[in-house]
Write a structure and sequence with these properties.
- The protein is of the alpha/beta class.
- 26% of the residues lie in helices and 35% in strands.
- It contains 5 helices and 9 strands; from the N terminus they run ββααβαββββαβαβ.
- The chain is globular, with a radius of gyration of 15 Å.
């Protein structure tokens, strides 16, 4: 099954010059959603993944499904003041501004193997911030899985030294 027809471009959103990759048609298609989750999870089967981490909000959609598929736990990485327990925070740059993410201080035990998941890898800022948070807690980044990578933005370069970056679709 081809997933590309289930992703639409929204021009000039959230601001002029950005072509937003809208995955909502894929999410409402049962076969497309199942295929996306399987393609994102399959490279990491049998790799000892203990936890899957996903950033708010689309990282939650794929992250929880992939965690279930890999028999792993899930770590939510959220925007500020959304988590009820003690948190670590990181501020990072986006292609159109800055943002902050937080994770519970007890989300990862030292040495646990963590798969990082999101819907899209663009400039790499969000994923790098998520990886930095998990590593601050002592987690080992076992890989990165995204549905879409925008290769022209070179986000994977920002993610060196992580060498296990998987993308289902590359534009």
């Amino acid at each position: 099954m081809k997933l590309e027809p289930l992703i639409r471009d929204i021009p000039d959103w959230p601001k002029q010059g950005i072509a937003f990759k809208d995955i909502t048609p894929l999410l409402r298609n049962p076969a497309g959603l199942a295929m996306a989750v399987e393609r994102m999870a399959n490279p990491f089967r049998g790799k000892g993944i203990e936890l899957v981490a996903g950033a708010e909000s689309r990282g939650f959609i794929f992250g929880t499904a992939i965690a279930q598929s890999l028999s792993a736990g899930f770590i939510p990485i959220r925007k500020p003041n959304k988590l009820p327990h003690r948190t670590h925070a990181i501020k990072y740059g986006l292609e159109y501004g800055t943002d902050t993410l937080e994770v519970h201080t007890d989300a990862v035990n030292a040495g646990q193997r963590v798969l990082m998941v999101d819907d899209l890898l663009a400039t790499g800022g969000t994923m790098r911030a998520c990886c930095d948070l998990v590593e601050k807690l002592g987690g080992n980044i076992a890989g990165i899985s995204v549905l879409i990578e925008l290769t022209d933005l070179n986000g994977s370069q920002k993610l060196a030294p992580y060498d296990n970056i998987q993308a289902v679709i590359r534009y």
